[in-house]
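User: Hello, can you help with two protein structures?

Assistant: Certainly.
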Amino acid sequence: MTQQTKQHAANIITLSRILMVFVVVVLFHMGFWERVTAVILTILVIYLDSLDGLVARKLGVASEFGALFDITGDRIVEHVYWIYYSSVGIVSVWVPIIFISRSFIVDTLRSVAYAKEGKTPFGEKTMMKSPITRFLTASPVSRTIYAVGKVIAFVLLGIILTLQEGYERVSHWLSPRMFGDLILITEIIVWIVVVMNLLRGIPVIIDGRYYLFEREYPKELKDN
């Protein structure tokens, strides 16, 4: 396997999960069993999020583009889920608003850091300066907790959407009160994930404040 083929393998995984999330949305618009399939695919989509980076490291082809493409995949996947769940009324509209706004700000800072100084979001040339920022955004503990939180939230929301379509199939063991409790627990988890998203984004903004108030870059950008 050539070096280029190895690099393509990791990027194909990222691209696959991007495409898969749109398949999930289509399935959620269909019947009960299609929605069950969508929930299962949701778990796979999130699993592929960790697999692409693992493959790149195992094959020794981790790259700056691969890292940035992985982040792009993350953004598309989570935004599609939040927007869709909000559009069908099981998530507050403020959830996608918060996620999208945070993503634009953080990713703009990361793009400027990369364009001006070759700084990357993670790794040896990371733009992150403070230990707290590196812990919240790049440490295995923080990333794992956040990823697990998103998996639980997306899956539970998918289950709620599935049960809304075919509640009569499970009504013999899931009472209306239990279903209501499931909705409440899911809502709490969703807002916990929202808070984690902000906690992982605010330190990046603080560390990247130099780029927000730097006067040269806007002028250079305008001249280009």
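That covers the first. Now for the second protein you mentioned:
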Amino acid sequence: MCVSSNLAGEAINISKTTAPHAVSYPFTSYFGINHGHAVALNLSKFLKFNYMNIDKSDTSFNLNERYKQIFNATKTKNIYELDALIQHLAKEANLELNYNKLGINIKNKINLILSGINEQRLKNNPVNLTVKDVKKIIL
């Protein structure tokens, strides 16, 4: 188990992560939210942002085709159904996605959160992001 965990960590370090993962670290560090839960907090927001900005994608793969594959795999027809599915799955897993219910006043803590984001980890997101973009997305 330890070897597998180490190898998974090394793989993530090599391949980097996308925005929901990069943004999760401050939620874990500053608010004690488990890492997987912290990733789930903003997953739908970034999926929607990337989908709405597909034409700005800077990837070696076709992002539109990738979303079609995601919709097919999840038996959803569009980004809104995918969002609803993610919300449902989070609820089924007892993951609270509301910042206020988690005791996080997002408007008061946004600068702290943004300061805890490793911008290098944002670079693997399929649509280029700045910290300013992240602020708009998670608020």
